[in-house]
# Entry
Amino acid sequence: MAEPKNFPATFARLKKILQRYAKRLTVTVDKPDAYSLDAGYSEKFKRTMFFGAAQIKKNYVSLYLMPVYVFPDLLKDISPALKKRMQGKSCFNFTAIDDTMVEELGELTKLGFERYKESGWLSE
# Structure
């Protein structure tokens, strides 16, 4: 069974990964249980590009990372432990998180940010 008392600490660690990019992205939600970032406008998709979010849910804390959906090749080298945390194509669920997982997610987020940058989807 999930330990909801751990959720705020897990959320804080996931939020911190995303906050590294807040200066170049747009913070759309910043609440005690939810944090979300958008990138800039995409001519290709004719819309503002969602980048990522962290959110406390009933049974877990979720990290949504849209670059892995848009660029699925980013997932080719993820660890089996992180792959096991995936729900759908761009969501990772946690009841608690360790330093190794934070480090791997940090690197994956960095790679996704770089791909968004190369695609011209960052807010100026």
Summary: The chain has one domain: 4-118. The first strand starts at residue 26 and ends at 31. Strands lie at 26-31, 34-42, 47-56, 61-65, 86-87, 91-94. The mean pLDDT is 94.
